[in-house]
Specification:
It is built from six helices and no strands. By secondary structure, the protein is mostly helical. It has two domains: 77 residues, no CATH class; 62 residues. It is flat, with a radius of gyration of 20 Å. The two termini are 33 Å apart.
């Protein structure tokens, strides 16, 4: 590539469509939260959760093309963003597994129903083991 050749930015190449789709998904999830919250706990919770998701959708629209975070979330990333995303995903998974295991121990100690946490723990452990075996075989 010559030094004067135009460089293409992955975010510009795909346009804002990906951000629009992600924002629309946030609104759809917000509607589901609205219905579930309204039905389960009343209008206050449903409206509050819907407002949070609308704010998230607005943030996605605003940051859609210029933010490295958004570029990574929309799959328009380079090697650096891919590595950062992989590490962030690993940290998130570790924190969630720790939270589920902690909730299992606490519910068991209280004599409560720990079944949901047991199933989530089993799912996390088995998924990790299967993924590890698959990735080790691939080399």
């Amino acid at each position: 590539m010559s030094p004067n050749a135009p460089r293409s930015d992955p975010a510009e190449a795909t346009g804002p469509r990906g951000a629009h789709k992600l924002a629309a998904l946030a609104v759809v999830i917000g509607i589901a939260y609205l219905v579930a919250g309204w039905k389960g706990s009343g209008p206050g919770l449903g409206l509050g959760m819907f407002a949070i998701m609308l704010a998230a959708a607005a943030g996605i629209e605003v940051a859609g093309r210029r933010s490295d975070v958004m570029r990574s979330m929309l799959g328009r990333s380079d090697e650096r963003l891919t590595g950062i995303d992989l590490r962030a995903t690993a940290v998130t998974g570790g924190v969630l597994i720790l939270a589920v295991l902690t909730a299992f121990v606490v519910q068991t100690a209280r004599g409560g129903n720990a079944d949901p946490y047991m199933w989530l723990s089993a799912l996390a452990g088995s998924t990790y083991m299967i993924a590890l075996l698959v990735f080790l075989r691939r080399g």
